[in-house]
Amino acid sequence: MKAGIVGLPNVGKSTLFNCLSNAKAQSANFPFCTIEPNIGVVNVPDTRLEKLEELVNPERVLPATVEIVDIAGLVKGASKGEGLGNQFLGNIRECNAIIHVLRCFDNDNIVHVDGNVNPIRDKETIDIELQLKDLDTVEKRLDKVKKAAKTGNKEAQLEAALLERIHACLMQGKSARIIEAQNQDEEELLEAFQLITSKPVLYVCNVDEDAAVNGNAYVEQVKELVKDEDAEVIVLAVGTEADITELETYEERQMFLEDMGLSEPGVSKLIRSAYKLLDLQTYFTAGVKEVRAWTIKVGDTAPQAAGVIHSDFEKGFIRAEVIAYDDFVSYGSEAKVKEAGKLRVEGKEYIVKDGDVMHFRFNV
Ligand code: GDP
User: Fold this and answer.
1) Cα distances (angstroms) measured from residue 94 to each of 71, 163, 273
2) Distances (CA, A) of 361 to 135, 202, 284, 358
3) Residue 239 near ligand 1, beta carbon < 6 Å
4) Which residue has the higher pLDDT, 352 or 25?
């Protein structure tokens, strides 16, 4: 599961990516690693992990992580192959969610590709490229499916009807994510099409330091523009936060943030939001050797959760012993939770909840 950072050139994408990659400075246990120059694995900040560490006092602590991809090079005309357009659009297709960075800061020294700062126009420029790419995908598919539909194939007819709806939506300059599946079949088809504009999105308004807390007029314009999109808008002073990650000590960084009026780096919030956008959640294992946050999809069952640790755990799954995070914290230890009768034994059908502290029993 990964989130891709998109936006026009010079809006602050690589600064944001570098800032995220420097997030290692905040939590030392799981080094950020760059898989490829533009792909990084970032820790998901989670205060629950600190709390569990306090209670269990383990040898090490491992946070959950999320993969972030810097997708540079998206420009006007990308869908027609301008620049390295098609390659970059291919990279976006492989992502599961999109972080769309919008330039909301003035600075005459930093050239804007379209002459002046205008996040509304910028968003549209990027959206249009993505929509054109999807239009291409939809039209190709429609060509094939229509032929099958003509022969009376019911499935093909259903698919063609959905494709026509998406086509009409894209032609109006709207993204495919506004299309609502009307039944299970449509839902599966929408998933299978892998359209870029149907991926979930969040917007990052990149502002100057003085607008980090309350935003500015550009941010207001963006919020107004996307108010019907059901998408989160995050205000972030990317440049300043990048500077902060360069500071040596935690105390220095914290002081700088407090001066700005922030209690934690804005990028921490962004990482958590991206994690949520990917429909991910966390369960914990809490032993004296290791306290660890594991990542699963919302809705995963106990065996699926066990499978994240090891595929054998999933295959041989017998049962899970589960403690709700709040119970763990209020009783203070696993033993006390047991005493209080708050440890639950759950079977194969159990849908794991965010924050569950789990033990798995399995056959080998
Ligand atoms: P990209 O092309 O989208 O990856 O943009 P970069 O991250 O390379 O940023 C372009 C320029 O804008 C660089 O010189 C950054 O230092 C600068 N920059 C990025 N974020 C900010 C910001 O929040 N405020 C200001 N003033 N400059 C920024």
Assistant:
1) 11, 21, 19
2) 49, 39, 15, 10
3) yes
4) 352
Residue ID of nearest Cα to ligand 1 atom 27: 239
Q: How many residues does the chain have?
A: 364
Write the DSSP symbol of residue 148: H
Whole-number Å distance, alpha carbon 79 to ligand 1 midpoint, is 24
Number of helices (H) and strands (E), helices first, in the chain?
14, 13
**Amino acid, res. 255:** M
The type of residue at 7 is: G
Tell me which of 69, 110, 111 to substitute to probe ligand 1's pocket, judged by most ligand atoms within 8 Å of the beta carbon.
Answer: 110
How far does the centroid of ligand 1 lie from the alpha carbon of residue 71, in Å?
A: 15
Strands ordered across the beta sheet of 317-323: 60-62, 290-297, 280-286, 357-362, 317-323, 344-346
Whether the model clears a pTM of 0.80, i.e. scores above it, the answer is yes
CA dist., res. 21 & res. 246, Å (int)? 11
Q: At what angle do helices 266-277 and 13-21 cross, to 10 degrees?
A: 100
- CA-nearest residue for atom 14, ligand 1, is 110
For ligand 1, whether the C-beta of 133 sits within 6 Å is no
Domains of the chain, each with CATH number or no CATH = 2-116+200-277 (3.40.50.300), 131-197 (1.10.150.300), 299-362 (3.10.20.30)
Rounded Cα–Cα distance for residues 23 and 20 (Å): 5
Q: What is the pLDDT of residues 299-342, one digit of tens each?
A: 999 999 999 999 999 999 999 999 999 999 999 999 999 999 99
Which has the closest alpha carbon to 175: 224, 235, 225?
225
Q: Whose CA is nearest to atom 25 of ligand 1?
A: 239
- ipTM over 0.85? The verdict is yes
